Amino acid sequence: MKILIVEDTKKLAQSLADHFDLAGHSSSIAGTVEAANELVLLTHYDIMLLDIMLPDGNGHTFLRSLRLQKIAVPVIVMTARSEISDRIDLLDIGADDYIIKPFDIAELEARCRAVLRRHGGGGYTNIMLGNIELSPLTAELRTPAENFKLRNRELRLLEIFMNAPNILFTKEQLTDRLFNISESVNENTIEVYIARIRKKLIGCNMRIETLRGIGYRLTETFLPK
Length: 225
Description:
With 225 residues, the chain is an alpha/beta fold.
């Protein structure tokens, strides 16, 4: 998962980021509505964790603005308000779920998985294409010849391709989805990850095709009988 944490309490935000990063995910922190809005417009996130009370605005207003702009990033609201009317309002304006502060991080992570399952993105259900099967939950790629345990970015890159077969992705789009803005990425980094996945797909009827100067896509190829 690539997660945006919108929370102005630095200790809580960093604790959440550390937890998700250690679990193999990628997280960014925004302490204000302005910073969150800039990040959402600049890069793709699989899910957003949104605090309601922020120094420069209200999370309700920010969420409503996102939905009016047709920005469909799944949002879990972190709120100290427990009144039923507040929770109904959050869901009505576009929240996918909410969690009441203080909360257990394990519960929050479980809610993230549930929201992503409902959206069908960030996939926690197995994905099958051709003669390969990807299990995002166990980070395992199954092929006719061998089963592979994938590293985090290998998994996320293969998820992107398998969730959108035959769709062309530029190097910039893949970099945007795999790395945070603060990370320094060499222009050859994506090529390295592509090469690793291609080795695992040898003998399979799915392959990553390069359109020189344009990008990459996952396509089906017919193997000789």
